[in-house]
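Internal tracking record. Fields below are filled automatically when a chain is submitted to the structure queue. Please do not edit lines marked as system-generated. If the sequence contains nonstandard residues, flag them in the REMARKS field before resubmitting.
Queue: standard
Priority: normal
Entity type: single polypeptide chain
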Amino acid sequence: MSNIYIVDDDKDIIDAVSMVLESKGHKIGFQTNPEDLVENIIKYKADLVILDVIFPEEDDAGFKMARKLRHNETTKNIPLLMLSAINEKGQYAGTFSNKDRDDVYLPVDQFLEKPIAPQKLISVVSDMLK
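SYSTEM-GENERATED OUTPUT FOLLOWS
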């Protein structure tokens, strides 16, 4: 099927998302920090990237990673799914959702909150890969 790359500091989330997507035939690559992100995604030949927002190093690392991927000529057209518990953790005033996506601050194709039901994840990923 497709090569999906997950960037999340929570190994349990990576394992859960991987298990769901691998059950549908997808290949999964991952990393637990923002280091060398663009290079790793290019090397993996990702068809879709799933990003978390908050990392121990920076509360908004996921936003920065999304912008970095969008500004790179090789990765700019790879679909980005932001999967985060940001609204639940209360790190930011207000909440984030798909209505907040924009080309400058939150340049992702979809924004979903954790936890996510496996069928919802499968459905969204399938739609994004079409």
